[in-house]
Amino acid sequence: MSDRYVHGYTGREVERLHDQAGALAGLLHRDTSYPAGSSVLEAGCGVGAQTVILAVNSPDARFTSVDISPESIEQARRFLDARGIANVTLRVADVFDLPFDAASFDHVFICFLLEHLADPEGALERLAAVLRPGGSITVIEGDHGSAFFHPASEAADRAISCLVESQARLGGDALIGRRLYPLLTEAGFEDVRVSPRFVYADGSSPEMVDGFTRNTFTAMVQGAREKALEMDLATAEEFDAGVRDLYRTAEPDGVFCYTFFKAVALR
After folding, report:
1. For 117-129, what is each residue's pLDDT tens digit?
2. Which end of the chain is more exposed for a tag (fewer CB within 10 A), N or C?
3. Smallest Cα–Cα separation from 201: which of 133, 145, 124, 256?
């Protein structure tokens, strides 16, 4: 999957991932915790931005966090070590070729992984195989089609579309949030429950404007610039105008809205 990661592996992207996790910790993780002694697989942990939140929220659970990128695993290791996190084991592993026995885990957690996979159904089936019967899976994904903002901007809409299209050409789906229910159901999971998690940022919430509008969403779109230009989806001038207009929504009179989707299901 590493060569299909539309956002790239730059230092700025690592910073963005941590900004994103911090800004959205309450929204996305407030109802996720695991019992003492339970074994949890985090698939696609990346640089550990979500891992720290999981480990702190469930200090007596045991986490195994895997990612296909050795570089990301090493960055995650340094990040966790610097914070004294001791209940996480990090491993390089491919979600389509997991090095675990059947029914090895009580719970599975994945966040912002399926959107980058050409076969999310297959990934869910493989994760189901290492989950014990009756165990839970939690999946969190965004949906770029849910982005609305003021001031309106055709250029900004086009820049977002460039990200969506470039990710699609790389085999992913930036609109996957809306598909979580059918994906989990078709993969054989039961009692599937999906809850939308709505982000709203305006001048009354400067921390969310900074953490999400500027440093998460707009930075994410900006990070797709190289791929968008390489694929001839826009000119540099068109793309940059869209990014400028997205940053404009972070001004005191701007508004930005976005929806994440969180699904929980049973094996």
Report:
1. 999 999 999 999 9
2. N
3. 256
